[in-house]
Design brief:
Layout: H1 21-35, H2 40-47, H3 51-58, H4 66-75, H5 80-95
Helix pairs in contact: 1-5, 2-3, 2-4
InterPro entries: Cro/C1-type_HTH, Lambda_DNA-bd_dom_sf
Organism: Nocardioides agariphilus
GO molecular function, one term: DNA binding
Length: about 100
């Protein structure tokens, strides 16, 4: 059987590792929800997802489908395009070390 490779090399300190897309998206969704002073349950209900699932998305533990991402963003009155732009800007301004964001479909 083949060798199992970790997703994040352990030799790179955690502070220098590039964050995962789902972590950046989750953080931006949480920032928007908190800025609007809304509860997880309120946004989750409008998006048609469980509160637990929305919490996992915000914490970067789940990688939502485009349909779910659209529903959650819409519940916060954002488009997926606008959310993506915010995430890209936040990731660059936070550290300046990640450069351009490359997404794969």
């Amino acid at each position: 059987m083949g060798e199992v490779l970790p997703l994040r090399p352990s030799s790179t300190p955690a502070s220098e590792q590039e964050p995962l897309w789902r972590e950046l998206v989750g953080a931006e969704l949480r920032r928007e929800r908190l800025a609007r002073e809304e509860r997880l349950s309120d946004v989750a209900e409008r998006a048609g997802v469980s509160t637990q699932y929305l919490s996992e998305i915000e914490r970067g533990l789940k990688d939502p489908s485009s349909e779910i991402l659209s529903a959650v963003a819409g519940a916060l009155e954002l488009s997926v395009r606008k959310l993506s732009i915010r995430v890209a800007r936040a990731s660059v301004s936070a550290s300046g070390t990640y450069g351009a964001l490359c997404l794969a479909a």
